[in-house]
Design a protein that fits this description.
heterodimer; A: 326 residues; alpha/beta; 4-stranded antiparallel β-sheet; 10 helices; B: 5-stranded antiparallel β-sheet; 30% helix
Chain lengths: 326, 334
C-alpha cells in the first residue's frame, strides 16, 4: 500500500474531558472518551466504526475533522497534519472533509429554505457568483434524488428520509472526498434506510468518496462497509475487513455484540446464544487491565492486570490477551 | 373466546383538526391469546403506538375519538368504560412500558415510590408493604443489588436498569396484559438482548400476555408468537410468526423483509432492495389499497380497497392478490 492510498490517518489520538470539580465542588474527574486510537482510512473505502453508546465513536469522528480538538495525537489528511493547521488553513481544507449528522430533524435550520441551506456552504467557501450557486444547489438536489422545485421549501415540509437526503446534499456541496456519516441512517424507517444507503453507495461510486461510517447497527455495517473497527470504552479493540470480522470475530466483545443482534428469522431464536453480563463500566472509572474484563466470559488473571494493545494478526488486528481462534 | 386475554374488533381512532377528520386507525381486529406475545410491527405513522394508546384510554381528548365494535379484556367488555372506568383498569389490568425509560420516570422521586405507585392507587397499600413488594419485583426483573436501588433516583440508574424498573412497575399489579411500546429502542444492543430475554422469561414463568410494539422485525422474530403488520393505520397482514417469515403474503411485508439489512449474511451486492416512495399522509390517502402507489405488483383493481383475505392456517392479508375470486368486483381480474 502506498501513502497515496490513505486519505486520512489517525495516530495515537486521545480526547479527554474534565468532568466535575470547580463550582459543584469535589475533585475533577477525567473521561477518556477516545484513548489512544490509531487508524488508516483508505481512499474510496467505506470504513465503519461500530460500538455502543459512550464508546467514543462520535467523539472520534468529530476529532478527525477537528470539529473538536484532540487532547493529543496526530491526524493526517493526505499528508497534512490537521492538528498543526491554523484556522484559515483548516477552513480551506474543510471543503474536502464533511459530515452528515444523525438527526435529520435537528440538523437543518427550520427557518431556512432548502435553497439557502445548500447555498450557505457554497457562499462561505467562495463558490462563485449567485447564478452559479443557484445552479449548483439545483444540481445538488437532483444528485440526491429530489426535485429542484424543493429549493423553495422549508425543512418541515419533508419526511425524515428526504431531510437526510438534504443533509447529504449539503455535505457534498463543495466536492468533499472524505465524509463522516454519524449514524446517518439510524433514525430512518427500514424501507427508507435502504433507499438512503443505496444513494450513499451511488454517490460514493460517482464522486469517488471515502466514508467514515459511524453506527451502532451491525446489520448495516455488514451490508454496507468494506472494513470495520470495533470500539469499546475509548479504544479500538478489533479491526478487519467486514467479511473476515463477521465470519470470525477475534475479540470476545465483537462476538458478544454480534450475538446480541436480534435475527429476523424465528427459526434462529437464540435462547442459548452467549450473552453479555452486567453493565458497561463508567468511562470515568475504567477497570484495571483490559477494559472489557468485567464483562468478558473468558477473562483470566492477566486480563485484570495488563491492558492489551492492538496487535496485528495477519491483515487484522485485535486488542485481547486471548483472541478467539481466527 | 376464553383463551383470549384480549379480543379487539373494529378499533377505529380518529382525530379532528383544522383540516377535517383524520382516521389514524381503521377498523383493527386482533386477538391476544392468554400467555402469548403478539407483535404489532410497522414503520413510523403506521398506527402501532396509537393502537396502544387507544387500548389504554390514553388518546388525547377531546380531539381524539376512539370507537370499537367490541374490546373484550378477559371476557369483559371495556370499549364503553369511559375515563373513570379506564383509570381503574390502567396499571391494574393493562399496563404499559414505554420506549424512553428516562422521560417516563419522574426525576425527583425515588424509584421505589414510582414503581410502587400502582399498588397505592389500585390496592391502597401502605408504604411498608409497597416497599417490600417493590423489592420482590426488583429481584424478579433482575436488578442487581436491589435493596440499595430502592432509594435511587432515576438518573442514578443506567438505561437498562431504568427499563427493568419500568417493567417492574408494569407488572407490579400482575396485569392481565402488558403493552410494551418499543421497550428496547433506546437501549444498546447488548442491553436490549438482556431486556428481551427478561420479558420472555416473565412470560414463561408468570404467564404474562404481552403486546410487543416494534419497528424491528428482528425483535418480532425473536419474541412473538403471532404478528400483526400495520401500514397507514390498517392491519395488512396477520399470521403466526413462523408463517409470516416463511410465507410473507402482503407485498409490503415482503418488501420490508427484503429491505432489512442482515448481520448474519454476507453483503449481497452494492445495492440493497428497498421499497420505493414513502408512507402516505393519513389525511391524503390514495384511493383503494393504501400501499398500491409503492407496490410493484399493483393492478387496476387495487384502486378499490381490499378486504382482509384468509390464506392457510389463519394467515390473513389485505391484498387483492389473495382475494377469493368470488369477492372481486364483476369484470375485474387480479
Amino acid at each position: 500500500m502506498t501513502a497515496s492510498d490513505i486519505v486520512l490517518s489517525v495516530r495515537d489520538v486521545t480526547k479527554h474531558y474534565r468532568v466535575g470539580g470547580g463550582f459543584a465542588g469535589g475533585p475533577a474527574k477525567v473521561v477518556r472518551a477516545v484513548d489512544g486510537v490509531t487508524l488508516d482510512i483508505r481512499a474510496r473505502e467505506t470504513f465503519a466504526l461500530v460500538g455502543e453508546s459512550g464508546c467514543g465513536k462520535t467523539t472520534l469522528g468529530r476529532v478527525m475533522l477537528r470539529l473538536q480538538e484532540p487532547t493529543s495525537g496526530q491526524i493526517d489528511y493526505r499528508g497534512t497534519d490537521l492538528t498543526g493547521l491554523d484556522e484559515a488553513a483548516m477552513r480551506a481544507l474543510r471543503k474536502r472533509l464533511q459530515i452528515v449528522f444523525q438527526d435529520p430533524y435537528a440538523s437543518l435550520n427550520p427557518r431556512m429554505r432548502i435553497g439557502e441551506i445548500l447555498a450557505e456552504p457554497l457562499r462561505s467557501h467562495g463558490y462563485g457568483p449567485p447564478a452559479d450557486i443557484r445552479d449548483r444547489c439545483a444540481e445538488l438536489l437532483e444528485m440526491v434524488g429530489l426535485r429542484k422545485q424543493y429549493l423553495h421549501n422549508y425543512p418541515h415540509q419533508f419526511s425524515g428520509g428526504q431531510r437526510q437526503r438534504i443533509g447529504i446534499a449539503r455535505a457534498l456541496a463543495n466536492n468533499p472526498d472524505f465524509v463522516v456519516c454519524d449514524e446517518s441512517v439510524s433514525a430512518l424507517d427500514v424501507s427508507i434506510q435502504a433507499q438512503v444507503l443505496n444513494l450513499l453507495a451511488d454517490l460514493q461510486d460517482r464522486l469517488k468518496l471515502t466514508y467514515f461510517f459511524i453506527t451502532h447497527d451491525l446489520a448495516v455495517v455488514r451490508q454496507f462497509a468494506d472494513r470495520v473497527g470495533v470500539m469499546f470504552l475509548g479504544r479500538l479493540v478489533e479491526l478487519g475487513t467486514t467479511e473476515e470480522l463477521f465470519a470470525q470475530p477475534l475479540h470476545p466483545y465483537t462476538m458478544l455484540l454480534m450475538s446480541a443482534v436480534p435475527r429476523p428469522d424465528p427459526r434462529q431464536r437464540g435462547r442459548d446464544r452467549p450473552m453479555m453480563q452486567g453493565e458497561i463500566p463508567s468511562p470515568m472509572h475504567l477497570p484495571s487491565g483490559c477494559r472489557f474484563h468485567t464483562r468478558c466470559p473468558f477473562a483470566q488473571e492477566i486480563c485484570r492486570r495488563e491492558d492489551p494493545s492492538l496487535q496485528a494478526i495477519g491483515s487484522r488486528a485485535v486488542a485481547c490477551h486471548f483472541p478467539l481462534s481466527g | 373466546m376464553a383463551d383470549n386475554i384480549l379480543s379487539v374488533r373494529g378499533l377505529t381512532t380518529e382525530f379532528s383538526g383544522g383540516r377535517g377528520d383524520v382516521r389514524v386507525l381503521d377498523d383493527l381486529s386482533f386477538d391476544v391469546g392468554r400467555g402469548r406475545i403478539v407483535g404489532l410491527v410497522g414503520e413510523s405513522g403506521s398506527g402501532k403506538s396509537m393502537t396502544a394508546l387507544s387500548l389504554m384510554g390514553l388518546v388525547p381528548q377531546p380531539q381524539g375519538r376512539v370507537t370499537a365494535r367490541s374490546i373484550l379484556l378477559d371476557g369483559t367488555e371495556i370499549s364503553r368504560l369511559g375515563p373513570a372506568g379506564m383509570r381503574a383498569l390502567r396499571g391494574r389490568d393493562i399496563a404499559m412500558v414505554f420506549q424512553e425509560p428516562m422521560t417516563s420516570l419522574n426525576p425527583v422521586r425515588k424509584v421505589w415510590e414510582q414503581v410502587g405507585e400502582p399498588l397505592a392507587i389500585h390496592h391502597g397499600l401502605g408504604r411498608r408493604a409497597i416497599r417490600a413488594r417493590v423489592l420482590e419485583m426488583f429481584e424478579m426483573v433482575g436488578i442487581p443489588d436491589p435493596k440499595t436501588r430502592l432509594d435511587a433516583y432515576p438518573h442514578q440508574l443506567s438505561g437498562g436498569l431504568r427499563q427493568r424498573a419500568m417493567i417492574a412497575m408494569g407488572l407490579i399489579c400482575e396485569p392481565k396484559l402488558l403493552i410494551a411500546d418499543e421497550p428496547t429502542t433506546a437501549l444498546d444492543v447488548t442491553t436490549q438482548a438482556q431486556i428481551l430475554r427478561l420479558m420472555r422469561e416473565l412470560r414463561d414463568r408468570v404467564g404474562t400476555s404481552i403486546i410487543m410494539i416494534t419497528h424491528d422485525l428482528g425483535i418480532i422474530a425473536e419474541m412473538c408468537d403471532e404478528v400483526n403488520v400495520m401500514y397507514a393505520g390498517q392491519i395488512v397482514e396477520q399470521a403466526d410468526v413462523f408463517d409470516l417469515f416463511e410465507k410473507p403474503s402482503h407485498p409490503y411485508t415482503r418488501g420490508l423483509l427484503a429491505s432489512i439489512p442482515r448481520a448474519t449474511e454476507p453483503r449481497a451486492g452494492r445495492r440493497m432492495p428497498s421499497i420505493p416512495g414513502m408512507v402516505p399522509n393519513l389525511a391524503k390517502l390514495p384511493p383503494g389499497c393504501r400501499f398500491s402507489p409503492r407496490c410493484a405488483e399493483a393492478m387496476p383493481i387495487c384502486r378499490r380497497p381490499p378486504d382482509l383475505a384468509t390464506l392457510d392456517g389463519g394467515h390473513v392479508a389485505r391484498c387483492w392478490l389473495h382475494a377469493a375470486p368470488d369477492t372481486r368486483p364483476m369484470g375485474e381480474t387480479a
